[in-house]
Structures are given as C-alpha cells and as structure tokens.
Design goal:
It contains 8 helices and 8 strands. By secondary structure, it is α/β, with parallel strands linked by helices. The chain has one domain: Alpha-Beta Barrel (TIM Barrel). It has an 8-stranded parallel beta barrel with strand order 1-2-3-4-5-6-7-8, surrounded by 6 helices. The chain is globular, with a radius of gyration of 15 Å. The mean pLDDT is 96. Regulates expression of the glpD operon. In the presence of glycerol 3-phosphate (G3P) causes antitermination of transcription of glpD at the inverted repeat of the leader region to enhance its transcription. Binds and stabilizes glpD leader mRNA. InterPro entries: Aldolase_TIM, GlpP. One of its GO terms (molecular function) is transcription antitermination factor activity, RNA binding. Pfam families: G3P_antiterm. Keywords: Glycerol metabolism, RNA-binding, Transcription, Transcription regulation.
Length: 185
C-alpha cells in the first residue's frame, strides 16, 4: 500500500526541484538541504499550492539539529512532518503532532539492532530505511518494528523503486526527477 497514493516521495534538494514538485501531482515532498531563512517561505509556497512538506531537520542550515530546533520548526513553520536520525527530535515531532519519520542507516547488523531498539522506544510514525535498495532489510525492519517504511538512498531505477515497494515500503524517497516523472499518476 502506498503512502497517500504516492509511491514516490520527491526529495527536494534545490529550488529547481521544488518548482518541479509544485507543478507535479504529488501531494507530499521531502525538503533536504535548505537554509532556515528560506524554509518558511518554501513551506508557505507549498501550502498555497495544496502541497505538504516533510522537513529533514538534520539537513537544515542555520539551526541546531536538536529538539529545540525541531520545536521551532514545528511551531513556526508547521510542516506535515519531520525527518531525523535523532530520537529527541522524533519525540518532539510526535509531541507537536506532526509526522515523525526516523531515519535508519543500515550499515551493519549492530547499527540495525541499535536503531530498532530506539525505534521501539520512540515509536515514530514512519521509518526511512537507507539504503533503500536492500529488500530483505526493508522486510526485516518492517517485521521487527511493525512501523511503515519509506525506502531511500541509492534509488536509481524503476526496478529499485518496485523492489522496495514489493518488500513492503509504503513509499520511496528519491531526488531523481526522472523517477518522479515515471510515477506521476
């Protein structure tokens, strides 16, 4: 099952991609690599077009990537959700009633086990599994946590997207605009 009928969550790295997202049929997008001074305007522009933004707090320039920064973003910018690797940020997002998306880097078994422990403790709304091109790990994380999965990282083809979705991911995050276009429905 896809996330709000989206198989792809466009990951937006620059204003050209943001403009493309605004003109797309996608409802949700993920903001990456943005300066705090532009964040409010970008979220407002998206909202004016009926779009909803997830903000990757760890990649915002000009603000500390902690629960206080997350609180400011949630209260003042009012995004649809927050992505972070930090559990304290996830807890703050849940407190502020925005989607909480825990980013999980699967570099080895130990990292996965530690991440799963944190996820079970803080219960984010979604987990973004990176890299998203390992279907067996997507299945395993979903089975062990019971939390819906977004797959991201190294998504380079339709085969990668379909493999992640078949493994149980609710959506795939990618900044590859050619893949966005293939999934405009």
């Amino acid at each position: 099952m896809s996330f709000h009928d989206q198989k792809i969550l466009p990951a937006i790295r620059n204003m050209k991609q943001f403009d493309m997202f605004l003109d797309s049929p996608f409802l949700y997008g993920v903001l990456l690599d943005i300066h705090l001074g532009r964040l409010g305007g970008v979220i407002s522009a998206a909202r004016a077009r009926g779009k909803k933004m997830f903000v990757h707090v760890d990649l915002i320039q000009g603000i500390k990537h902690d629960e206080y920064g997350a609180e400011f973003i949630c209260q003042d910018m009012k995004p649809a959700g927050i992505l972070s690797t930090r559990s304290s940020v996830i807890a703050k997002a849940k407190q502020k009633k925005v989607y909480a998306i825990q980013r999980m880097f699967l570099i080895d078994t130990s990292a996965m086990e530690k991440s799963i422990e944190l996820v079970k403790k803080h219960r984010p709304d979604f987990i973004e599994v990176l890299p998203g091109v390992v279907p067996d790990l997507i299945r395993e994380v979903k089975e062990k946590t019971g939390i819906p999965i977004f797959a991201g990282g190294f998504i380079r083809s339709e085969k990668d997207v379909e493999g992640a979705l078949e493994a149980g991911a609710s959506a795939v995050t990618t900044s590859d605009t050619e893949l966005w276009k293939k999934y405009w429905e």
